[in-house]
Hints:
The protein has helices spanning 16-27, 62-75, 124-128, 138-141, 157-166, 186-194, 289-310, and strands at residues 5-12, 33-35, 79-81, 85-89, 95-99, 104-112, 116-118, 134-135, 149-153, 172-176, 198-201, 204-210, 217-222, 228-231, 235-238, 242-244, 275-277.
Amino acid sequence: MSEPQHRKVIILGSGPSGYTAAIYAARANLSPLVITGNEPGGQLMTTTDVENYPGYPKGVTGPDMMDELREQAERFGTEVHYDMAVEAHLGERPFRLVVDGGEVFTCDALIISTGASARYLGLPSEQRLRNKGVTACATCDGHFYKDMEVAVVGGGDTAMEEAQYLTRMCTKVHLIHRRDSFRASQIMQQRTLDNDKIEVHWNRVVDEVLGAESVEGVRVKSTVDDAVEDIAVKGFFLAIGHVPNSQIFKGQLDMDDAGYLVVQPGTTRTNIEGVYAAGDVADKMYRQAITAAGTGCMAAIDAERWLAEQE
């Protein structure tokens, strides 16, 4: 194995959180290294148009926005390394990271911005139509389906929230659930059932997303009698949860039951001094580019102050 390469600050992840942390750390003369992860640019690379990020009055594509953030980080001296961390050794200082390509890096402070991945059903048609009507974020993409019918899959609080949010701009929301009862909180269930614009399809699973170039409908199958039905919709929203990309930190950093990293209130500090978590890997509530960027800024400032105290 190669000799470790040392940096003051390493940032894992290259979404809005990671690159914002890099901009702040670089401007503080910390010469950060960003290890991009297996999806450089993060979840926004799968988003066609971003219209709710401040500073882009005409909107911007996700990939263009991430290119600009990367360029801004590099302008101040950030080094970007295209690889993914597969091992993290946080039990002693300096912290030690091994990437997929076999290189070893050490650092004094570590900012974890590895994000979270939306759960998908795993259907070939679903993957083929991602960003062509298939999405996992109503807040991000709901506006594109104004005055149209859409479908939401799920039965928890997130699905209820997404469905209710979509009724503000869509003519009808088809809520598809594989069981005969929701697992959401009672108040969220009641709000959903009381909403005239939401039609619940109980005991149904999605067999296929229909459409050649964009979503035109969904084919659902009954879990009771296998009856098949096609529902015409223009948008298909997944609301079956996210998986935080925190696996390599298990047993080292505090996590909740779902695997989200736990930070100290009002900060980005984890249970290990010098290790910070920002963005969706520590946020199961908001999951927006702007909130991820905000916590990336916080993490860089937290790391800078902590490093200054060590000198």
